[in-house]
Amino acid sequence: MNFIVRGAKAYPAVVLTLIVGAVGLALLATPWRDSAPWLVGGYALVIAAWQAYEMVRQLLRGHAGLDILAVIAIVAAVSVGEPWAALIVVLMITGGEALEDYAENRSKQELTALLKRAPQQATRLLLAPAASGSGVPAGVAEGERTETVPVSEINVGDHLLVRPGELVPVDAILLGGSAEFDESSLTGESLPVLRAADERVASGVVNGSTAITMRAAATSKDSKYQQIVDLVEQAQGSRAKTVRLADRYALPFTIVALVIAGAAWLVSGDPVRFAEVLVVATPCPLLIAAPVAFLGGMSRAAKSGLIVKGGGTLEQLAKVRSAAFDKTGTLTTGKPEPRDVRPAAGVSEEELLQLAASAEVYSSHVLASAVVGAVKARGIALLPVESAAESATNGVEAVVAAGTVRVGKPSWVAQAAPDLRVTALDAGELAIYVALDDRFLGTLVMRDELRPEAPEVLRELRGLGVERFAMVTGDVPATANAMAAQAGIDEVYAECSPADKVRIASELQPRPLIMVGDGLNDAPVLAAADVGFAMGARGSTAASESADVVNRFDRIDGVGEAVRIGKDTVRIALESIWMGIAVSVGLMLVAAFGFLPAIVGAWMQEVVDLVAILWALRAIRGKRRTSPDSGAGRVG
């Protein structure tokens, strides 16, 4: 009963149409049977008038649609004495919203699942004496109490209790010992990940088998999972462009339908033929198939860890002909390993490492974390920093007691330290240069490996019709060329600033162009490309916000998967549209020769619409892409 009540509230027009039909059928069994056609026909004309009003509003907004066929079909059916056929058309129109809601909910279920997994509550520790018998869980120090609060009320610095199997509510620092987490919802990594004390843990991951305490490092709105939620909500809210695909066929289909109906009437001299043709030419729910297919494609992408921000992006992905890639953290693993420390004369290795790491703490680049980690592994303490600033694609500058430390690219560091000497590198190695005020201190040599799946991804893209490939990076030519050769890319643009990347992306032909990147410095070019693809597992928030597709998993094969999903989705959407149009035209021709009574044709059209929508739901299918072992991640 509750289900019926909810349905009546959600779709009152459908319920009213069914009631009118039931009352009309009941009247046929009574002495007032002659009033049944008047009731049914009158109700159909009222709905037609309302649809005509809505149609005019849509036309004024520049949206051509098929409503005019439905309106004419209803009026024609009633006029020639076929009110029951008109009522079936009304049922199709009023039931379209319910059918659309069902199809959309089915097609975007994976996106909805991401929203449902968002943390809602947190257990906050109150550092105050606890009353006896308070039942504080094991693992919480004596004298601490807890309270359950919405995640929106958590502030930076709050101490939190996370019980076994619970979601980490906000980005937080692990206190005490190490702990294992299930990070599959963020990274696709199927195995538990061990995090050490004082390590930052992202929101949305699942705690392992022991209760832990954490210190909030960000508010809910600035935490990792909330950023995913924001992207998903943006994706779900973008439907306008997908509807345009169906709108392209609306006017030609309307003209064809009216021509066939008019010709049938003219040749036969029977106005009933006109109505019989038009009741099978009202595929309004049928053209729901286009947005349903696109939402299905977006849901399929979400299964593979890809958040596609709109149906228009899928259309662009289906047509991609050029691809450009950032290097560090995109084509490479983003997990550089220290290879050598080369201090200048009079500088110790420890001094070089200590100053470099003290500055790199304030850098968002993937290389920075590697430098800091290497220094911590040696047990070298970091220096207090008075202020710090990062220069996109160049490096980071920090003020310590000894002076101003500059860490980054040789050309940028040399501006402060003219005595800088460029060090020799082997293929695949990269160098980080360090200066203190105007004195060159030395070089840290790192090596970042190419992602093992990168060459295969490029081969897959070639098979999908991508013709041109380029690497666009801020790294020096020697390192960039070595990595590009391993990946199979011939066209390399090195030592690029963010402005250079935007200029190069705007000039690359043929179009559309997909640009793949991960860092803060990639945000402008991701926004400028036809399709911006962000490696969001460890990439910057700015890159994810600027991109059209965000990859939650730390694998580059998502690029090929995105292009494949785009092609499949557009193909299925067009198949659904053309299937509906072709069958409708066939039925119109049968009706034009008088072989299809109006009421039978109306029911057949309902079946055609349903089949077309079910066909569009095929866009959801696709094998889920799993993410094998993947690890954490200036130049770029």
The largest pleated sheet is described as:
7 strands, mixed
The number of helices is 23
Spatial strand arrangement across the major sheet: 10-22-21-20-11-18-19
SSE-based structural type: alpha+beta
Low-confidence parts: 128-138, 623-636
Key words describing this protein structure:
23 helices, single chain, elongated, six-stranded antiparallel β-sheet, seven-stranded mixed β-sheet, disordered C terminus, 636 residues, alpha+beta
Description:
It is built from 23 helices and 22 strands. The protein is α+β, with helices and mostly antiparallel strands. The strands form four sheets. A seven-stranded mixed beta sheet has the order 10-22-21-20-11-18-19, with helices on both faces. Strands 2-1-3-9-4-7 form a six-stranded antiparallel beta sheet, with no helix packed on it. Strands 12-17-16-15-14-13 form a six-stranded antiparallel beta sheet. A hairpin with a 2-residue loop joins strand 16 and strand 17. The chain is elongated and about 110 Å long.
Write the layout of secondary structure elements.
Blueprint: H1 2-10, H2 12-28, H3 35-60, H4 67-79, H5 83-107, H6 109-116, E1 121-126, E2 145-150, E3 159-162, E4 172-175, E5 179-182, H7 184-187, E6 193-195, E7 200-201, E8 206-207, E9 212-216, H8 224-236, H9 240-268, H10 271-279, H11 289-303, E10 306-308, H12 311-319, E11 322-325, H13 327-331, E12 337-343, H14 349-360, H15 366-377, E13 387-391, E14 395-400, E15 403-408, H16 410-414, E16 429-436, E17 439-447, H17 454-463, E18 468-472, H18 477-487, E19 491-493, H19 498-507, E20 513-517, H20 523-528, E21 531-535, H21 541-546, E22 549-551, H22 558-592, H23 598-616
Parallel strand pairs: 11-18, 11-20, 18-19, 20-21, 21-22
Antiparallel strand pairs: 1-2, 1-3, 3-9, 4-7, 4-9, 5-6, 5-8, 10-22, 12-17, 13-14, 14-15, 15-16, 16-17
Helix pairs in contact: 1-2, 2-3, 2-5, 3-4, 3-5, 4-5, 4-10, 5-11, 5-23, 6-8, 6-11, 9-10, 9-22, 10-22, 10-23, 11-22, 11-23, 12-22, 14-15, 22-23
